[in-house]
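Task: sequence design from structure.
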């Protein structure tokens, strides 16, 4: 279950960033996704 939760959190973070910058999720840099997850208390390996 934890891996499903992490996948959902990453997908949501990517979608949120993509909406903010007006790009597709594929165009969102991975470091921005990781930083957003960390800002919200998530664990990033």
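Answer:
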């Amino acid at each position: 279950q934890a891996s499903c939760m992490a996948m959902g959190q990453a997908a949501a973070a990517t979608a949120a960033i993509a909406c903010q910058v007006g790009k597709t999720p594929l165009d969102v840099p991975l470091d921005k996704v990781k930083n957003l997850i960390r800002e919200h208390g998530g664990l990033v390996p």
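The longest helix spans residues 2-21.
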